[in-house]
Amino acid sequence: MPSHDDDLGYLDAASAFNLDQELMSNPGFCLEQLMELAGLSVAEAVYHVLPVVAPSKGEPSAIIAKNKILIVCGPGNNGGDGLVAARHLHHFGGAVTVVYPKNTSDQQPHYANLVQQCRDLHIPVLAEMPHDDDEVLGSYAVIVDAIFGFSFRGEPRPPFDAILRTIIRAAKGRAITVAVDVPSGWPVDGFDTTTTEHGQDPLYWMPDVLVSLTAPKLCAKQFTGRHFVGGRFLPPALAEKYQIRMPRYPGVQQVVEVTTTRTTTMCVDLKN
Amino acid sequence: MPSHDDDLGYLDAASAFNLDQELMSNPGFCLEQLMELAGLSVAEAVYHVLPVVAPSKGEPSAIIAKNKILIVCGPGNNGGDGLVAARHLHHFGGAVTVVYPKNTSDQQPHYANLVQQCRDLHIPVLAEMPHDDDEVLGSYAVIVDAIFGFSFRGEPRPPFDAILRTIIRAAKGRAITVAVDVPSGWPVDGFDTTTTEHGQDPLYWMPDVLVSLTAPKLCAKQFTGRHFVGGRFLPPALAEKYQIRMPRYPGVQQVVEVTTTRTTTMCVDLKN
């Protein structure tokens, strides 16, 4: 039986920050390690939701049929997870393009590594979004939103405000949209459900897929698409402290799909 | 069709060292990242060779039937790979014990992280081998040799000489023995096949399983057990430079079993 996401517990923004700090205390995990595992989780989730075709004779396994993947990376750790996912998805057979508008390798030296690792695989790393029309942006089977994570507050600033509007338009089209940890633009602790105007919020969009890292954030209660959870590294003491239950991961998977049964008026898929 | 290991190319000790340096050039991969992926490969291979039982009702997947795993970690990067594998195998459902006789976290600060990550999962980290009898050592379904890697030369020194003799005895018993990258004690560039005395070498033992990392080392030509290859990160320019062909990894696996058809007089499985 797959886990239900309501059984896992949710983290508010402050708890997510504190848990991250505790995971990376010394001795503990280092950023490079956690980012590698987080990005691998995202890549596995994207692989699972991609349309595949049956293997032809002589092929070792099913091949991704529509494998053009766009990964949009923000300036912080969410963007780092996206850069790692790009590399793994390339090795999984994806035709990956990265959009990384704000290079932050001066603040985070490891980001220079992650970008170089993509370039060494001939993954295009663009500073701007592809042209927003059917011929270009419409050709991607999957668009990954790795722009903002659990430390996002307030309003998206340029250039990410315009980029996010483009992704939201794409989410109404054919592309499968996958959000890393938090759908960018969403308040991490969730939209205020005591009013109804938020449904009109231009940043209120519904990705097809959410990949929660370590544990779902509070806003995931308002998500109605396919929900995956990654983070198969949480020590039991931290899980207990933050009242998180790890889902049951099958086999050697780094990510697991969990069930979601919410359908509230808050959670209208904008595609419908 | 699985790849044949002879098609992948082999690295001698000097090339393996140089390739490792190039992978970790700046910008490139950092040690923590590569070790995480290497250790995950080892853990996946161990999972694949473990005996499993069919899932019972209500269970998400097959459960490891005999899951007592001993991982013996040396003082260098091979041992670091073992420490990473221990953590992942715990999360995969293994009952893992680590033997780590020579703590080298003063030279490699990341090793303190890796040991702490094991302890946080309540994995016993012992300084000495369990008692070498059927009751104790004989109770492990799998013994992982993560003692020496591609930079090993000469003769094993204490305490690893005695530990290795214990593992070699265990390899003749019921335990499945898994060597990380190079069977410890083997010359990385292989035994001299122009003489026959090496078959009498007390360090000439045959693990059941070898997990080659990035590419098989030259001595793997003399290995006759189940052969896995991990390292799904190699950039094409380095593969070309070192004349390595990556095997075809199915799905999202970080490791793949390759075929081996050697049966020379050199390669007698000591169990037979």
Please give a quick description of this structure:
The first copy, chain A, is α/β, with parallel strands linked by helices and 272 residues long. Helices cover 27% and strands 15% of the residues of chain A. In chain A, the strands form 2 sheets. Chain A has an 8-stranded mixed sheet with strand order 5-4-3-6-7-8-9-10, with helices on both faces.
Describe this structure in words.
The structure is a homodimer of 272-residue chains. In chain A, 27% of the residues lie in helices and 15% in strands. Chain A is of the alpha/beta class. In chain A, the strands form two sheets. In chain A, strands 5-4-3-6-7-8-9-10 form an eight-stranded mixed sheet, with helices on both faces. The longest helix of chain A has 19 residues, at 31-49. The first copy, chain A, is globular, with a radius of gyration of 18 Å. Chains A and B meet through helix 2, helix 3, helix 4 and helix 6 of A and helix 2, helix 3, helix 4 and helix 6 of B.
